[in-house]
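lol ok so funny story. i was supposed to be doing the assay writeup but got distracted and ended up predicting the structure for this chain instead. priorities right. anyway since i did it might as well share w the group, maybe its usefull for someone
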Amino acid sequence: MGDANFPLRYIPVLHEKSGQEIPDMYYLEPVHLLPQEAIDFSNMHVQSSCVKCGQTTWNLQDQDQLCMYRQYLNDSCDIYATPRIWGPMGASPAIIVSHKAYAFLRENHMDRGIRFVPIGVRD
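and the output, tada:
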């Protein structure tokens, strides 16, 4: 992958009905997980507490921009995952990619089903 640093786990995707692996599709799971403190939650749409565990949950709506603190982003890594963030379709991690990773994925047609959205970076 050139000089890009893409530490990923390639997990097979299973067909919903047959349960068989889809040969040309993988779930790419970043190895580097950012801590919750890396996310600036000040502009998130909704804050609530989980009724089961009491943990604070943040709801990222389509109009909200995910913001990260610069000190947690490292020039030597091109792809990260965040802890799970609640959104319109449930809770899932956001995948943060560098401009280099974005260009690589686009140029190599590895962006099927991916929606790229700019993030904010705070000092």
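The longest helix spans residues 99-107. The CA atoms of residues 1 and 108 lie 10 Å apart.
back to the writeup now i swear
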